[in-house]
Amino acid sequence: AVKEMVQSHIEAEQQEKAIEDFRRESMILSSLDHPSIPTIYDYFYDETEGRFYLVMKYIAGGDLAGRIRSAPEGRIEERTVAEWAYQVVDVLDYLHNLPTKIVYRDLKPSNIMIDGNTGKVMLIDFGIARSINQQEKGVTAVGTMGYAPPELFSGNVEPRSDIYSLGSTMFHLLTGADPQSNPLLIFDFQKNPRPRQITSQLTDQMERILMRAVEYNADARFDSAAEMRDALAQHLQNLRNGQVSYGVTEVPQAVGLSHQSVFCGFCGQRIVATDMFCAFCGSRQPMAQHGVHVEAYRGGADTTAKLLLLGTDSLDSPAYTIEKMESLVGRRDPMSNIFPEVDLSKYDPQTKISRRHAKIWRDGPNFLVEDLGSSNGTIILSGATDTQKLQPHQPHRLNHGDKLRMGDMTLHFVVN
C-alpha cells in the first residue's frame, strides 16, 4: 500500500516544518517491529510530483468503524471487543516503551483494522501526513473529538492519553453509543448513562475497565498500557471461566427519595426524584407533582414483572423483564444517546413507537406506567372491554394482566 502526504492543508510557512516532521516520523515508523503494526518498506520524495510517499504492507480487511455499522444491533459482543482491545493495548505498550516514546494520539475505530487473512488487529494511520506543534493550545489535528482525552486539547500529550482513546473506542463498540455525538459529556457518568445502563449484557467487570480508562483525570486511569493489558487478560480468563457478574452491585436496604436519581421524561437528563422541575429544561415533573413515592431496590426484593410482546410474526418475540427501578420503553437511537430497556426497534419498522415512548417504574410492590408525550400515545386494555388512553405525563398503576397498546404493538404486563 502507498500512502501519499497531502500538503494542501498546510500553510506555506509551515510546509518546511511539515516536511521535516514527515521524514522524522517516517524514519521512526520504518524502525517499528510489532505484529500489529504494518511493515514499512520505504518512504521517498517524488521530485516530479513534489510529494512524499510511504510504502507499507497492504492489509486486506476492514476497520472497526465498518464492523460497528454492519453489526445487527450497532454493537459488538463483549468477548470479541475484549480480545481486540487486548491486542491494541499491547501495541500501545510497545510504542510507549520505545527509547523515543510514541503516543499514537488518534485511536478510534476507523484506525483499527482486522486483517482478513489472520484475524489479527492492525493499528494503522500514525498521522504522518500532517505535523502538529505540541506547544499549540487546543490542537485537534492529532485527535478526534469524542475519542481524544481532555488534556489533548490543552496541548498536553502523554501515554495515558492513548488509554482514554482506547476506552472510548471500546465504549463505542460495546454500547453502540458514538462518543462523537456528545464528545464533552458522554463520559460524565453523573449526568449520562453508565455502560451497563446502555447495554445490560455487559459484565460489571467490563464496565469498571471502561469507566477507569475514560476517567477525566489522567491520574485516575490505568497507570500504563501494561496495567490495562493485564486487566483485560484477567477479564478474558474470567469470561472463559464464567467468573463474572451482571448487575450485582451493593445497594442500600433503603434509599431515601431525596437521593433517588431518575431521568426527566421531557429532555432525558438525570435529575433527583423529588425535583418539581427539571434543572435542564425547566419542565414540571409528574412524579413530584402527583406525589408518587418511589423507593429504591431492596436487597432480595421478590416482586418482578415482564412485558410480553404479542402478535408478531417473529419466532423470537421477546419477554422484557422489568428489573430496574425505572425502565424506558421506546426505540433505540445511538445518535441521540437513547437506549431504552424495552427496545422495540426491531418490531417497529414504521417507527410508530417514539424513541422515549413511555416508562414503567416501581412504587414499592406496585408498578406504574407513564406516557412520555409519545406521538401515537399509549392505550391500556384492562380486562375484555375496559380501554383507556393515557394522558401524557400522568402516572397510571399497572395491574397483572393489563395490556399496553403502543403503535401497532401490544405488550402484555405480567407480575411474577
**What is the CATH topology of the largest domain?**
Transferase(Phosphotransferase), domain 1
Please state the average pLDDT score: 79
Biggest β-sheet: strands ordered side by side in the sheet: 10-9-19-18-15-16
**Helix residue percentage:** 10-25%
Q: Measured on Cα atoms, how large is the radius of gyration?
A: 25 Å
Ranges where pLDDT stays below 50 over 5 or more residues in a row are: 128-141, 249-259, 287-301
Number of domains: 3
Q: How would a crystallographer describe the biggest sheet?
A: 6 strands, antiparallel
Assign the structural class, choosing from mainly alpha, mainly beta, alpha/beta, alpha+beta, or little secondary structure: alpha+beta
CATH superfamily of the largest domain: Transferase(Phosphotransferase) domain 1
Strand/helix succession:
EHEEEHHEEHHHHEEHEEEEEEEEEEE
Shape: elongated
Describe the 3D structure.
With 416 residues, the chain is an alpha+beta fold. The protein folds into three domains: 55 residues, Phosphorylase Kinase, domain 1, CATH 3.30.200; 181 residues, Transferase(Phosphotransferase) domain 1 (Transferase(Phosphotransferase), domain 1, Orthogonal Bundle); 159 residues, Sandwich (Tumour Suppressor Smad4). The chain is 23% helix and 20% strand. The chain contains eight helices and 19 strands. The strands form five sheets. A six-stranded antiparallel sheet has the order 10-9-19-18-15-16, with no helix packed on it. It has a five-stranded mixed sheet with strand order 12-11-13-14-17, with no helix packed on it. Helix 3 packs antiparallel against helix 4. The longest helix is centred in the N-terminal third of the chain and has 19 residues. It starts with a strand and ends with a strand. About 10% of the residues have low confidence.
